[in-house]
Amino acid sequence: MSTLKNTIDTIQQELTAKLAAAHTQKDVEDIRIAFMGKKGSITELLGALKDLSIEDKKEFGPLLQQLRQNAEASINQHKNALLEAQAQAALNKQKHFDVTATLPAAVRGHLHPYTHFIQEIQDIFLSMGYEIWDGPEFETDFYNFTALNIPQDHPARDMYDTFWTDKPGHLLRTHTSPVQIRAIEKAVKENKLPIAGIAPGRTYRHEAVDASHDFMFMQCEGLLIDKNVTIANLFATAQTFLKRLFKKDELDIRIRPGFFPFVEPGFEIDMRCVFCKSGCSVCKQSTWIEVFPGGLVHPNVLKAAGVNPDEYSGFAFGFGLTRLAMLKYGIDDIRLLHSGKIKFLEQF
Ligand code: PHE
After folding, report:
1. Which of 154, 160, 174, 175 for a ligand 1 pocket mutation test, highest count of atoms within 8 Å of Cβ?
2. What are phi and psi of 130, to 5 degrees?
């Protein structure tokens, strides 16, 4: 029966040699299956034990059990050693973390220049005690025109190339001024005069699209109603806002008459060119840039909204937010600003 003893020794040697060459968990698992699995060599030997004579059983039984226990122990040991080596390698890798290694470029999102610009404008006016108002872009004839002292057949309606809609008396607002009316009405209803607020938002005009016109653009309305408001308040507000927006300690403004049916008197407020001293392409060599239409709220507008013009007065303005954004960021084509082209927008 010495051949059985030889077999046991051979299996033991084979196992030791194979484990020594095993470098992965899978290698170890394959070895376990080959020796201890259902059809493994050790399992088969143990199975054959029952066919041996009593004496052989006595002699080889303990040897086989020993072989099984040894095999189990050395396989587990090897497995644990591998796990430990793996953990150590991961730890070493961390220790040698290279802080100068370059990361693959990550695509980062950012605010649209409009969003950024509107936040900046809002911050300035909030700091002056103004509220932020919103109003519908799908408006009625009443709020967009009639309540603003532009009745049916008033020639001023021609200034606004209007997108009328299928719903009679409804249009896409041509300016943000209807928000003025809504704000005054609300204040009267809630007995909340005086009020001050701005309303940035989209406006629509049926215009041919070119570098400086689009059928959609943005304006920012401003309104202040209180007792004894004068044009001096409007000019000071415009100047303060423009100085803060263009980050200038000094910024001259000048006033020209301007006609809008909902203000009296009405003005066009220009600012000194913020890009040059003696004329450039932005100010068309004039050193002045037209930025800020406004005026004192027309008594008819106050009356129509339920405010007594003998008691209250106010100023309103409605600057082209799109135009100002293009000026500030040096964008010379409105189609780029409205394009949604990432390559372009990424620059801001
Ligand atoms: N809503 C006017 C326009 O779009 C601008 C404006 C607003 C003028 C408020 C005066 C006062 O042309």
Report:
1. 175
2. -85, 155
